[in-house]
Every structure is written in structure tokens, then in C-alpha cells.
């Protein structure tokens, strides 16, 4: 059965008619010729297909295209401003945050989505307040509206849905740290969230 | 005229030339190549491990709207050469392993193809199968030779007698599991037959090796097979040779001339038809005098192959040249099972083989009360103990010295289980690494002056993440003495001059030597002010004068781990690799490749294991949720450094290759660190938490 839908892909409205079994990933790659998101597992296990859907990172292989009708999708091909690369992409190049490049568009979309999550105060498994379910009375914050300080441990944890078999994690982390600092500098001076653990405590 | 690459230009850490295309996702991999109205293939795989197809019912699939073709062994084109069972796809009803292709559906869309493939039913004639590797398997045999053309067995002196009388003797069993390469980009083919022949967009480590392997299978002259692979999403050996997916796709395309047929293996399918590392079972015996000098060593290895095609992992091979011992013996025995066909996975032989040997050396050091590095110093051979040839460049001890200083080896407490931090036990370990220099692989390159300062450099090389686009551009620029922006490199196409496979850590050395030779010839023939169109094509010279030398790269791995005393959870807190690999062309991409090998070694140490259920002949954890590879959270403080080297024995390029050595000693170093932390010696990988709860 075919259903007509509209997807806004990298700022451009695209109309198409899809098999109801078609995923967003296959709609992008096989129907619209947008091959920036990659297919590594088709099961939401590797993250290579990560795109931003209405600003949030999603595994596009797990999402049916008919369910994304009307949504705005940003791929790594549409992240930059025109021909200019997004600061995250520039950081990946400078830090050599990839080798074969197949997981890279997903890593980069995931990283951009992750920065927004951290800025919005979303806790991760290694965020102290989240793992301990405690509220820190001293600073008066409840952990939801404050920005999470992106320590190495926070980045490691938050980026672990994106597998890189070439093993570029050391450089991916360095690239994201740089881009995060850039983003913080661009917006405002970053306010470290008091609930984050220092990097050296580490183990999750 | 010979050109020597001066370190100044190539040592610059140029960022990847393909970087912008990779970070935007616009670099086109095989499945993404634009072809007109493609068709999609989905296979039907055997669900038994051994037997044959009694009948196959394709009627429901064929009648589905949108299905263009259903192909089985009854209607598939006959291959011109079906002697290689891996490529003899749909040539008969026999089933050699679970997962083997039995049919294929070709349809207008991937959804329809997949649905239709599920409608094909197979009636089997089931035979008894055997999919379980055992040390005492009754049908073990000695193969004629093992991978890389190495001898099955070797013996010098009388190892067994000397071991018997040795003052200190170690006799241990080690094992490494079935491991799957799992590159992020699945094995993928787009095949198109037309009057010009067969065009293949293929995810491969070598366009020319694919052409040479596939042309005779289809009875085509090599020039009629055009293989294109400008960008490759990782391979780690599994794309070194074509696999059944290519043949299946090409067969379908043969029936559907003029239409492009696309087929990407699913992640699950990759576990049965794309090669893997055989499990190994190793008996390592070391006999030493009280000072730690080895008098004898014996390494006996048991591996598996598929009953339909032999591949024998040469895991005993590194023990032959690694340490001095007057009496030495090695052997390989193999069991032919009803399992998928094993093949190359990063550092075949050296990687699993050095796990057993290097953990055994750690155990021997413990037994002797010696520092593990000191033990290796005492057993450093003056010449290659296997061949008697002098080593061209053996700097293993330099790697250890540099690493020990950088890592803080002196902080290691030799008494296992003596360092605690809260409820975590800390430990440090070390291991050696080695990888041979693969000589005599000749590639060709073409250089043409395009005018306006631009030089076209053509070679059928591959970039699977190795940095080829960048490093070959750098080498060409340096050899021609022009800027990198003046070089227009083309790779990944069989219409370009012949290039060897990106395997055996030999790519850059082979291709770079060809470019270097071509650049020399170009300047000789056309000078420094060439006319537009001036061109040379040169095959790189063989390095025959090095036959009298033993040529290997070496490395030292250092690991620090922490183990939760209550749960057994192990973390690799620090990992350092120090390498001697000849000239490093691009430090930025080289460091990444070393770190990548070490990261895969971390996976080997702690995570990776394809679990075979011998009752059914299937790897039960055949996806990335259950076949665990390292994720970002698993990798903490990790660094790779190298000795400043130029290996004149490998020719004017000075580089030996770096693709594999990074993985070789990592797992042993981590296992040795785990023992230092806990006192528990894990001899079978991976080191899962249950094994550390002593």
C-alpha cells in the first residue's frame, strides 16, 4: 500500500508516495537520493542512520516514513550553512574523528543533537544527579533547566549509540569537546552544571 | 633517477582530502552510486547446516506484484568456473553451511524483495552436521599450508625433549573465539550487465583483485569486468576478496541484462557469508633456564575451516620468529566443519597467535619472578630464529623502553591483586606485537600533466578509511615536488593502473612505491616543465635485494585496567601502543589507524565473540546488539606513538605499513593487566566479568 507524504529534507519540502513498510532511512536513500545517512544494521543498533528529526536525534532506520509525514529532517549534508561546514563537521576533520567515514554522518548528527540535549539539561547515565536520583538543594537547581557540563565521560556515554568500527572514538570525543566549547562560546559563557561528575571519577 | 621522499613534506599532518565529503555524507559508497531504475535483491538462505535442497517453491514469491525475478539453483546461469565453492552460488542443491544462499528474489523495491524472499519455501534433505570445534576433534588434519603461504608445521632441534628437562616449564591452553570483522558498511554490490560486459560497484579492498577473482568465474576476459569503489566503509580483511554476495548479484544481473541490481548484505547475513576469524585453540609450551632464557618453545594450534573451502588461520606463525629459543616446534591442525567459510580478519595469524604467546610470556615472567619486559629482553634474538636471516629492523626493545617511560611502567606492582582504589582493583600489563612486511607486491601508477600546474595521478588503490586519498596525494606531491593542491588523484576503479589489495598492511607501501617510481620516470622523461598531456605509466620495481633479510614491524602494548571486585566489571583505563613500522607518511591518519587497531584489540579482549550454537550451525548473536564491539564509553585514555624511522630496506618510500599491528598485542596486554589487577589468569577470550570473579 502506498501513502503520499511530505518530508522536509535539509530545508527542502519533498513529496513522495511510500510503501507503508518503508523506513525514513530507505525513503531518504532509495527514493529521494539523499544518501548522507547510512545503513549499517537497519535495527537501530549502530547509529549510522542518525538524523535530526524536528531537531532531535533519531535512528532513521527505526522510523516508518508514513509516521514522519510533515516532519523536518536534517542530515549531515544539510547541517552546514550553505557550502560552509558546521563547526562539528570542521572539528571532526581537524581531529580526524573518522576513518572510513561510514558512521560519520550519523556520529555528527548525533553529536549535534546531543549538545542540544545537554544544553537543555537532559541527564545521562553518568550524570550524578540522574544516577543517584538526588536533588541538590544547595544550588537550588533541579537538574532539568541547567546545562550539563560535557565532561569526557558525559560525551562518551551520550555518544555510545553510535558505533565506529574503525575505532575513532578518541578523536570523536576530542572533536565533540571542541565543537561543544565552540557552541558554548557562541551562545553564552557556559555555566557548568553542578551535578556532573568530574572526569576522573569516570566509571559508569 | 630515484627520488627520496623528504620527511618534511609528508610528515605534515594534512587533514583528509576526502574529509568534507565524509563529514557531510556525500562521499558515495557502493550502494549509493547513481544507477538508472535499479532493482533490489534479497536472498533466501539455508536454515540447515548440511544437506541439500529437495525442492524449492517460489510460486508465491513469483506471483507477488513488483517481483521481477526469482532465481534458484534450477534456473540460475551456469558459471564458467565453479571450482571455488565460495563462488559456486546456485550451481546445485548441496548445502555446505547454514546461511548459504539458496535463492534470490529481485524486485522493484527493497520492501517487496524482502517480503517475497520470505515467501519462498524450501524442502530439505537434512544430513548430519558438525559445527563444533574441539581441541580433540577426531578429524583434525594437517593442511598442505596455512594462510599467507606459510608452512603448516616447523621444527628445529628437539623441542619436546628439551621442554621435558627445562628448569622452568610452562604448559598452557589458550583460546580465542570466532570473531566477525563487522565493518560499518555492509558488503554491497551493484551489478550491471550490458554489451560492454559486467560493471560492479563493489565495497571492496581491491578493485583489481575483485576483477581477477570474478572474471574467470563468469568466463569473462578481465577487461570486460569493470569494478568501481572510490569509497569503502571499512573492511578489516573481510572485503579483501569478493564473497558470495557479489556472485549472487552478478548472476541476477546476468538474467536481467541492462538493469542494475543492488544487494547490500544485512548485518545478520554478514555473519555467514562475508568471512570471519576462525576460533583458535592454542597449546603453548615454554621451557626456560632459571635466568629466563628460553631453551625451547612449542606452539600447537587448532582452528576450523568450512568443509567446502579451506582457509587456515596461521596462528602459530608469530611464535616462529618472535623469541630466541634453540629448540622450537609449531604446528597447525584444522577441523573441516559445516560452518561458514573463515577468511582474513585484521592481522590473521599474528593477532590470535600473539594472544597465546604473549600471555604465556607473562605467565613465565610471573613464574620466574622476572619483570615481563626483562623476560623479553633476555629472549631477544640476534637473528630471525625461524629463517636464520638477519632482521632488517628489529626495534622491539626500543618500543618497550619508550613505552615503559611514557606509561609509567615502574609504578606496576608485580604482586597481583595488590593495588586497590575503592572497590576496584587496578593492574598494569604489557605485551609485544609484530607484523611481517609483505614484500613483492607490485602496483602500477600513471602520472599525466594536465596543464596549468595540475598533475593527474591514477592508480586502482582503495581507501577503506586508511587515508589513501590523502597519503597518496601527499606522496605524489612530494615526489613531483609540487603542492598537494596540484595533484588530482584517482583511485578505486579497475580502469586505472593495476593496484594490489589493501591488505597485509601493504597498501600504502605498494601503491606509494609505484607513484614514487612513476614520478621519477615522469621527471626523467618530461622534465620540470612538461607539456600538457605528458604521461608515464610505471610498474613499481620489486625489492628482490631484500630476500636475505627478515622484515617485520614491531610494537609494545601497555594496558592499565580496573576491575570491580564485586561485579567483575573490567574497564581499560589506559592503553598505549608504541610502534616501529618504518616511515609514517601522515601522522594524523597514522595515529588514527594505530588507535583503531588498538580499539578493535580492546573489543577482542573484552567483548567480541560470535557464539556458535553447534546444534543448529548458527551464530546466535549475529547482530550489533549482541555481538559487542567497543563503543565510545569503552574507550578511555588511549594513545599511539611510534619510533621515528625510515626503513631503507623497503625502498625509497621507507614505509612498511601500519594497518594491522595496532591490534596484535592489545588483547594480551589487557589480559596481562587483568591478571596483575586480580591474580586471575584468563586464557580464553573475551575477558567477560564472570571470568574475573575468582
From TrEMBL, chain A:
It comes from the Bacteria. Residues 185-204 are annotated as: Disordered. Residues 3-79 form the 2Fe-2S ferredoxin-type domain. Keywords: Iron, Metal-binding, Oxidoreductase. InterPro entries: 2Fe-2S-bd, 2Fe-2S-bd_dom_sf, 2Fe-2S_ferredoxin-like_sf, 2Fe-2S_ferredoxin-type, 2Fe2S_fd_BS, Aldehyde_Oxdr_Iron-Sulfur, Beta-grasp_dom_sf. This is 2Fe-2S iron-sulfur cluster-binding protein. It comes from Brevibacterium daeguense.
Automatic annotation (TrEMBL), chain B:
Residues 24-128 form the Aldehyde oxidase/xanthine dehydrogenase a/b hammerhead domain. Keywords: Molybdenum, Oxidoreductase. This is Xanthine dehydrogenase family protein molybdopterin-binding subunit. The lineage of its organism: Bacteria, Bacillati, Actinomycetota, Actinomycetes, Micrococcales. InterPro entries: Ald_Oxase/Xan_DH_a/b, Ald_Oxase/Xan_DH_a/b_sf, Ald_Oxase/xanthine_DH-like, AldOxase/xan_DH_MoCoBD1, AldOxase/xan_DH_MoCoBD2, AldOxase/xan_DH_Mopterin-bd_sf. Transmembrane segments: none annotated. It holds the Pfam family MoCoBD_1.
Amino acid at each position: 500500500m502506498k501513502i503520499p507524504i511530505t518530508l522536509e529534507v535539509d530545508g527542502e519540502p519533498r513529496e513522495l508516495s511510500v510503501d507503508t513498510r518503508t523506513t525514513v532511512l530507505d525513503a531518504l536513500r532509495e527514493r529521494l537520493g539523499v544518501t548522507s545517512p547510512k545503513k549499517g544494521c537497519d535495527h537501530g543498533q549502530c547509529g549510522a542512520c542518525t538524523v535530526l528529526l524536528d531537531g532531535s536525534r533519531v535512528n532513521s532506520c527505526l522510523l516508518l516514513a508514513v509516521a514522519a509525514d510533515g516532519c523536518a529532517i536534517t542530515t549531515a549534508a544539510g547541517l552546514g550553512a550553505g557550502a560552509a561546514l558546521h563547526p562539528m563537521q570542521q572539528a571532526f576533520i581537524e581531529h580526524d574523528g573518522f576513518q572510513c567515514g561510514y558512521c560519520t554522518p550519523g556520529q555528527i548528527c548525533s553529536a549535534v543533537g546531543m549538545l542540544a540535549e545537554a544544553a537543555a539539561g537532559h541527564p545521562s547515565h553518568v550524570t550524578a544527579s540522574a544516577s543517584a536520583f538526588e536533588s541538590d538543594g544547595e544550588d537550588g537547581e533541579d537538574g532539568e533547566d541547567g546545562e550539563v557540563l560535557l565532561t569526557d565521560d558525559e560525551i562518551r556515554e551520550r555518544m555510545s549509540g553510535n558505533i565506529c568500527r574503525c575505532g575513532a572514538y578518541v578523536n570523536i570525543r576530542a572533536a565533540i569537546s571542541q565543537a561543544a566549547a565552540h557552541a558554548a562560546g557562541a551562545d553564552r559563557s557556559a555555566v557548568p552544571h553542578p551535578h556532573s561528575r568530574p572526569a576522573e571519577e569516570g566509571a559508569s | 633517477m630515484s627520488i627520496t621522499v623528504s620527511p618534511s613534506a609528508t610528515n605534515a599532518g594534512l587533514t583528509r582530502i576526502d574529509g568534507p565529503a565524509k563529514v557531510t555524507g556525500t562521499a558515495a559508497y557502493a550502494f549509493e552510486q547513481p544507477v538508472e531504475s535499479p532493482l533490489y535483491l534479497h536472498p533466501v538462505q539455508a536454515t540447515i547446516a548440511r544437506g541439500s535442497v529437495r525442492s524449492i517453491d517460489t510460486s508465491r514469491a513469483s506471483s507477488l506484484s513488483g517481483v521481477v525475478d526469482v532465481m534458484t539453483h534450477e534456473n540460475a546461469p551456469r558459471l564458467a568456473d565453479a571450482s571455488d565453492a565460495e563462488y559456486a552460488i546456485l550451481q546445485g542443491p548441496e548445502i555446505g553451511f547454514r546461511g548459504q544462499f539458496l535463492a534470490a528474489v529481485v524486485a522493484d523495491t527493497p520492501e517487496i524483495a524482502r517480503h517475497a524472499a520470505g515467501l519462498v519455501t524450501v524442502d530439505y534433505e537434512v544430513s548430519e552436521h558438525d559445527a563444533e570445534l574441539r581441541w580433540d576433534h577426531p578429524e583434525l588434519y594437517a593442511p598442505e599450508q596455512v594462510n599467507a603461504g606459510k608452512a603448516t608445521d616447523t621444527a628445529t632441534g628437539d623441542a619436546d625433549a628439551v621442554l621435558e628437562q627445562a628448569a622452568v616449564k610452562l604448559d598452557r591452553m589458550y583460546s580465542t573465539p570466532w570473531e566477525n570483522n563487522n565493518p560499518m558498511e555492509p558488503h554491497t554490490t551493484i551489478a550491471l550487465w550490458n554489451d560492454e560486459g559486467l560493471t560492479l560497484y563493489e565495497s571492496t579492498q581491491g578493485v583489481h583483485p575483485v576483477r581477477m577473482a570474478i572474471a574467470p568465474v563468469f568466463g569473462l576476459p578481465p577487461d570486460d569486468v569493470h569494478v568501481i569503489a572510490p569509497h569503502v566503509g571499512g573492511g578489516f580483511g573481510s572485503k579483501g576478496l569478493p564473497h558470495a554476495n557479489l556472485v549472487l548479484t552478478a548472476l541476477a544481473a546476468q538474467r536481467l541484462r541492462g538493469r542494475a541490481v543492488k544487494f547490500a548484505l544485512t548485518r545478520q547475513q554478514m555473519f555467514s557469508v562475508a568471512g570471519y576469524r576462525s576460533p583458535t585453540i592454542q597449546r603453548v609450551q615454554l621451557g626456560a633456564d632459571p635466568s629466563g632464557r628460553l631453551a625451547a618453545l612449542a606452539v600447537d594450534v587448532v582452528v576450523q575451516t568450512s568443509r567446502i573451502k579451506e582457509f587456515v588461520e596461521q596462528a602459530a606463525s608469530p611464535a616462529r620468529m618472535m623469541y630466541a629459543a634453540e629448540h622450537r616446534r609449531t604446528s597447525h591442525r584444522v577441523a573441516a566443519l559445516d560452518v561458514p567459510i573463515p577468511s582474513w580478519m585484521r592481522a590473521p595469524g599474528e593477532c590470535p597467535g600473539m594472544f597465546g604467546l604473549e600471555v604465556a610470556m607473562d605467565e613465565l615472567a610471573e613464574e620466574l619472578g622476572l619483570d615481563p619486559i626483562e623476560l623479553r629482553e633476555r629472549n631477544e634474538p640476534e637473528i630471525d630464529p625461524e629463517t636464520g636471516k638477519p632482521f632488517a629492523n628489529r626495534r622491539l626493545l626500543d618500543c618497550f623502553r619508550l613505552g615503559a617511560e611514557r606509561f609509567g611502567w615502574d609504578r606496576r606492582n608485580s604482586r597481583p591483586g595488590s593495588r586497590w582504589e575503592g572497590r576496584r582493583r587496578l593492574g598494569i600489563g604489557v605485551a609485544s606485537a609484530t607484523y611481517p612486511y609483505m614484500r613483492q607486491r607490485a602496483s602500477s601508477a600513471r602520472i599525466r600533466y594536465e596543464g596549468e600546474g595540475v598533475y593527474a595521478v591514477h592508480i586502482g588503490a582503495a581507501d577503506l578509511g586508511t587515508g589513501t586519498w590523502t597519503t597518496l596525494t601527499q606522496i605524489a606531491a612530494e615526489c613531483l615536488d609540487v603542492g598537494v593542491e596540484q595533484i588530482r588523484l584517482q583511485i578505486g576503479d579497475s580502469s586505472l593502473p593495476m593496484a594490489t589489495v589493501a591488505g597485509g598492511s601493504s597498501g600504502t607501501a605498494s601503491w606509494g612505491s609505484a607513484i614514487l617510481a612513476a614520478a621519477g620516470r615522469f621527471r626523467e622523461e618530461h622534465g620540470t616543465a612538461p607539456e600538457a598531456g605528458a604521461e608515464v605509466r610505471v610498474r613499481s620495481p620489486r625489492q628482490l635485494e631484500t630476500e636475505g633479510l627478515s622484515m617485520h614491524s614491531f610494537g609494545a602494548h601497555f594496558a592499565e585496567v580496573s576491575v570491580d571486585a564485586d561485579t567483575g566489571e573490567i574497564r581499560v583505563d589506559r592503553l598505549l601502543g608504541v610502534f616501529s613500522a618504518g616511515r609514517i607518511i601522515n601522522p594524523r591518519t597514522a595515529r588514527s589507524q594505530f588507535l583503531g587497531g588498538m580499539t578493535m584489540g580492546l573489543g577482542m579482549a573484552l567483548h567480541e565473540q560470535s557464539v556458535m550454537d553447534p546444534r543448529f550451525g548458527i551464530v546466535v548473536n549475529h547482530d550489533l546488539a549482541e555481538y559487542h564491539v567497543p563503543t565510545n564509553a569503552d574507550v578511555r585514555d588511549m594513545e599511539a606513538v611510534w619510533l621515528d624511522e625510515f626503513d631503507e630496506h623497503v625502498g625509497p618510500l621507507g614505509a612498511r605499513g601500519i594497518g594491522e599491528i595496532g591490534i596484535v598485542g592489545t588483547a594480551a596486554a589487557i589480559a596481562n593487566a587483568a591478571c596483575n589487577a586480580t591474580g586471575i589468569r584468563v586464557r580464553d577470550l573475551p575477558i567477560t566479568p564472570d571470568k574475573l570473579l575468582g
